[in-house]
UniProtKB/TrEMBL annotation:
This is DUF7775 domain-containing protein. Residues 7-143 form the DUF7775 domain. InterPro entries: DUF7775 (IPR056677). Keywords: Membrane, Transmembrane, Transmembrane helix. The keyword Transmembrane helix applies. Coiled coil: none annotated. Pfam families: DUF7775 (PF24985). The lineage of its organism: Eukaryota, Metazoa, Ecdysozoa, Arthropoda, Hexapoda. The chain crosses the membrane at residues 12-30, 36-64, 71-93, 123-143.
Length: 209
């Protein structure tokens, strides 16, 4: 049974997660340097670890054929929860800001502290949605994993109910003709090819003759 490589799908998730975490890092650093937003540790740790884990996962997915779905679900679920916590941290900072209660509604819209917290929390919410989507796909792969046997009585992975495509089915069919997509789908560390039992018996018979 032919199994499509899901590596491009997981690589796309990693690229988007790196982009969103980098945007959160940049916005947090800009607000800290320009508008004196408190440098809370959980903000720096969450956004920086999102970038580092994304890069490490993207590089690792290029070298191995099978993706560790349990690890993907654990990491994406954890990062999604941490990003959600950063949203509440920004809400806490706004609630305890001393100037907010003295500003009018029109003045609050131009208040740099408020703008920074809202924009950073918005980027974090996008990251939460992406991480939890990644986690749900990985969990589906974990709980619906089954194996069947082919004609040579060897175990192969069966089709799963969830169909993952690179952006869309038609787009994946279109880009599958390009070399970069084929390299992304292939594994660099290939396992040694093992001949089926029927071929091994045929070869041993030939040597005996």
């Amino acid at each position: 049974m032919h199994n499509r490589s899901k590596k491009p799908v997981w690589a796309l998730f990693k690229i988007l997660e790196i982009f969103l975490s980098s945007a959160c890092c940049y916005r947090h650093l800009f607000c800290y340097l320009e508008h004196q937003i408190p440098n809370v540790f959980i903000l720096c740790a969450t956004y920086a670890s999102g970038v580092l884990l994304g890069v490490a996962g993207l590089v690792g997915s290029l070298f191995y054929e099978r993706v560790a779905h349990r690890v993907e679900a654990l990491m994406s679920g954890t990062m999604g929860t941490l990003n959600m916590i950063t949203v509440y941290v920004h809400m806490y900072l706004l609630e305890h800001n001393q100037l907010m209660s003295f500003l009018r509604e029109q003045e609050q819209e131009k208040y740099a502290f408020l703008i920074c917290c809202k924009s950073n929390a918005t980027w974090a919410w996008f990251a939460v949605g992406l991480y939890y989507l990644h986690c749900s796909f990985a969990l589906d792969m974990v709980f619906n994993r089954r194996t069947v046997r082919d004609k040579d009585n060897e175990k192969v992975r069966s089709r799963r109910r969830l169909k993952l495509y690179f952006i869309s089915k038609s787009f994946e069919r279109y880009v599958s003709r390009y070399r970069w997509f084929k390299l992304l789908s292939a594994n660099i560390k290939k396992k040694a090819h093992i001949k089926p039992p029927s071929q091994r018996r045929r070869m041993s018979t030939m040597f005996k003759l």
